[in-house]
Amino acid sequence: MNDLTGKVALVTGGSRGIGAAVAIRLAEAGAAVALTYVQAEEQARGVAKQIEAARGRAVLVQADLTRPEAAASAVEQTVRELGGIDILVNNAGFLTYGPLAEVTAEELDRVLAVDVRSVFLATQAAARHMGEGGRIISIGSCFNGRVPGENFVLQATAKSALVGLTKGLARELGPRGITATIVDPGPIDTDMNPADGDSAEFQRGLTALGRYGEAADIAEAVAYLAGPGGRYITGTAIAVDGGYTV
């Protein structure tokens, strides 16, 4: 159900964590993969080597997605080097938290630039090149459906914006056979949110399964949505959160 042979994917923020797992999984399914990074070139090259060791094809794209033109430029480089784009995975983002009173205008602008503006601009650019069967998949957050405590106003604001964007995309791009979906992770063991971190016990307690997930869990969901199995799924979010939002 997940055969992506002949497809081209772009994964933003693909040098580590969820993005790296997604890039590797899509390549395993047969896609040629471009992945963006900002400064972690060594990590990005490590992901590319894993893909190439399995006889896949990988392209590295250095892109600071806080720059307005960067997302569109990353799409254009993908198309130029890999011959097109069929799958866009909007993964780039960062976890931020703190009380409302301490959020600065600069922090607000940065989070919205990465988590919302870059998604919009990359999607706008990618949609110009996509045809029937195109996939736009954004990595959201369990905060889209539930905010269980204080200090997550900014994170919830940014990730919730993806819901409206995705529903609008589904309506506008559906007639062209392009789907738009979100994968909402719960607590996932990455360097941004390690399973042995300060808040890990609290986060585990919010899940029905009582544990953290792995980046591979998110990658499997993305691969499914990117493949033939996802052809009739659009305008919606899939929670991969261990029952966080139950």
Automatic annotation (TrEMBL):
A Pfam family recorded for this sequence: adh_short_C2
Transmembrane segments: none
Domain Ketoreductase span(s) in chain numbering: 7-191
Gene3D superfamilies: NAD(P)-binding Rossmann-like Domain (3.40.50.720)
Superkingdom classification of source: Bacteria
Entry coiled-coil feature ranges: none
InterPro entries found in the cross-reference section: KR_dom, NAD(P)-bd_dom_sf, SDR_fam
Keywords on record: Oxidoreductase
Keyword Calcium: no
PANTHER family assigned to the protein according to its UniProt record, in alphabetical order: OXIDOREDUCTASE, SHORT-CHAIN DEHYDROGENASE/REDUCTASE FAMILY (AFU_ORTHOLOGUE AFUA_5G02870), SHORT-CHAIN DEHYDROGENASE_REDUCTASE FAMILY PROTEIN
Family, similarity comment: Belongs to the short-chain dehydrogenases/reductases (SDR) family.
This protein's name: SDR family oxidoreductase
Lineage: Bacteria, Bacillati, Actinomycetota, Actinomycetes, Catenulisporales
